[in-house]
Amino acid sequence: MIRGLWDRETVAMMLLIAIFPVVALWVMAEGLEAVARLLFFLVVAGVWHVIWMLARAQPPSIAGAMTAICLAMLAPRELGLVALLLSTSFGVVMAELAFGGWGRNVLNPATVTLAFMGFGYPVAPWPDLAVQLGWAAAPAALIGMATGVIAAPLVVSTVLALAVGAVLGVDYAETGTAVAVVLVLLVCDPVASAATRLGRWLNGALFGALAAAFTAHWSGAAPVQAMVSAALLASLAAPLLDELSIALWVRRRRKRFG
Amino acid sequence: MAADPRLRSALIAPLVAKNPITLQILGICSALAVTTSLDTALTMAVSLTVVLVLSSLIVSTIRRHIPGTIRLIVQIVIVASLVIVIDQFLQAYFFDISQRLSVFVALITTNCLVLGRTESFARSNPPLASMADALGNGLGYSLVLVTIGAIRELFGTGTLLGLQVFETVDQGGWFTPLSLMLLAPSAFFLLGGLVWAVRSLLPEQAEARETTPPEVEEARP
């Protein structure tokens, strides 16, 4: 995707700019500890990107910073150094670099890392997100949609699905913040989400429906854990939804033009 | 053994160079299912090797008498009979492990590895060569199973064969058990990583590319 100014790194930069409101409020809420965590994940992800550049001549991407931000914000607390290194390396290498780098991966490396931490170390407590992060997700989504790096159908259909849930009586008082932050940081990743128009609508609706269902029926799960699981499932379904949308399009074309 | 180099290579080649699991991706269903701990992996590996060697011997001995049209049925009957014997033996002497292996010993009957070796090798080779080939393949399978079983048990619980190797945090040590290792996906990850590692070390095992990228000429010399 190189069209004038728009190459892979521009998209990554735009994403970083878009999520800036969330990051800024997060650093303000958690202070120096947040910066230290972010630095740790930046170094781990960065080292892997450099190793793959040297070993496979894969250009490192600024998207590694995006992964580090997601992890610093959402990873379970009180994990040991070995656990953090192991799961971050797994996510960054297996979900992103092994596929050929950012842009060719199927799943978001941060989502995979968080799922790995959740399954691997189920007792580690998930973070509580400050409420203002949830509100900061709104300007983040707006900046992303305005610059074109976040697909509007994804966000709109998620909100619609959540609204349907609310009408059916789901109360988002506890999970609302996590839904908003996970939506902006993980689900709207332009690489790991669906890429066709119908696929995007379905992908967002699926995430919204899963988020509503987990809110209502998954008792005992931390909000972040439930929403990361929803993001993982929605992102796993994204290629299928794209396939579906393309198949429908081909059928429609065939009907119309024979 | 050393007398005949062909027997020797039939025995050694399947260990790494022609490993049934990492190269041919055969028999991975059981390799994924029974490797949560080392003792089940070992039991499964021994059972499969015994069944493979004995069925190769029998099929190879009567290879001139098996009608070609029903050869698969004959082979499956032989394999299934041996599997029943092994299953009964495990239930008699290793009841606990047999319970944990549940259906997977019985499923050796349908293991692609067993039928693959009897069909492709034992059916057209003399008994001794067939047994060497079967033993080699059984050991190659065992090697992978034991490796993955050991990794999963060690990092999943900190033990090996039930003996504590790493002191876990609950016992006052340093090791945090990685519960993911006890779940099925970890076997996929480990097997995939193993295949990746083997093919990086032995590039001739890698499959040919499905498509070749076009040669782009340099714009300027």
UniProtKB/TrEMBL annotation, chain A:
Keyword Oxidoreductase: yes or no?
Answer: yes
- Keyword line: Flavoprotein, FMN, Membrane, Oxidoreductase, Phosphoprotein, Translocase, Transmembrane, Transmembrane helix, Transport
Which residues are in coiled coils?
none
Recorded hits in PANTHER family, A to Z, give: ELECTRON TRANSPORT COMPLEX PROTEIN RNFD, NA(+)-TRANSLOCATING NADH-QUINONE REDUCTASE SUBUNIT B
Q: Tell me, what is one Gene Ontology molecular-function annotation carried by this entry?
A: oxidoreductase activity
Transmembrane regions listed in the UniProt entry = 12-29, 35-55, 136-169, 175-194, 201-220, 226-250
**A Pfam entry, by short name:** NQR2_RnfD_RnfE
- Protein EC: 1.6.5.-
Species assigned in the record: Salipiger mucosus DSM 16094
**Root EC class:** oxidoreductase
Taxon lineage? Bacteria, Pseudomonadati, Pseudomonadota, Alphaproteobacteria, Rhodobacterales
GO biological process: any one?
Answer: transmembrane transport
Protein name in the entry: Na(+)-translocating NADH-quinone reductase subunit B
* Any one cellular-component term (Gene Ontology): plasma membrane
Give the superkingdom in one word.
Bacteria
From TrEMBL, chain B:
Molecular function terms from GO: oxidoreductase activity, acting on NAD(P)H, quinone or similar compound as acceptor
GO CC terms of this entry:
endomembrane system; plasma membrane
Q: Which domain of life is it from?
A: Bacteria
Which spans of this chain does the record mark as coiled coil? none
Query: What EC number(s) has UniProt assigned to this enzyme?
Result: 1.6.5.-
Pfam families per record = Rnf-Nqr (PF02508)
User: Can you tell me where the transmembrane regions are?
Assistant: 12-34, 40-60, 72-95, 101-118, 139-166, 178-198
Extract the PANTHER family matched here. ELECTRON TRANSPORT COMPLEX PROTEIN RNFE, NA(+)-TRANSLOCATING NADH-QUINONE REDUCTASE SUBUNIT D
Give the protein's recorded name: Na(+)-translocating NADH-quinone reductase subunit D
Q: What organism does this protein naturally occur in?
A: Salipiger mucosus DSM 16094
